[in-house]
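Researcher: For the annotation table, I need structure tokens for Lipoprotein. Please keep the output clean. Sequence:
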Amino acid sequence: MMKVLRLIWITGLLLLGACFPDKPEGLAMSYSTYVQSPVVIEEFKVDGRHTLQGKKVVQGLADLRRPHDHSGWYMLPRDIDANGTLQIEAVWVELLTHEAFRAEIVVPVLELQRSASNFAEMKPVFGPDGLMLITSDPLPETAVSTLIHDVGRVCGTRIPELDQDYTLEPLALPALKETLEYDRPAGVGKGCK
């Protein structure tokens, strides 16, 4: 009987270990912005692979409501080395200035929070003057919790040839018209200048 109980206990430990492997199942991503810095993400790549199909309009309140503000999670099944890094590349246009930026940053996977389903969680946050933060905030313990974790910060390089005034065609992209018409509160986030 003792041998059977010991075998059940060892089997349980092995199964429990299989439930929480070191290697993430993939990447869970969400996007946000500082309140005064809505953007159109033109391109976003992780390890050279596109994460978006087409352009994405993003308006957030990250400088006012982090870690509670984001645009919903995108689950990207990926082969991710738990001890490795992710190469992030982004191109975006700031909606209020019409200025385009490009940035690259390397993110250590060990710095990323893990979801209950073992996905590494990452949220790019765009701010004024070409700012891009890579965040991975812990799950808030309460509705007023403000635990934040910035994994990386980079100031994008201006690319004037990609500048675009999206106000000329407010129906060109989903959520663009609503984002342009949004009555923004004063922001507190600092950019790259």
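Researcher: And a one-line annotation?
Model: Residues 4-20 have pLDDT under 50 and may be disordered.
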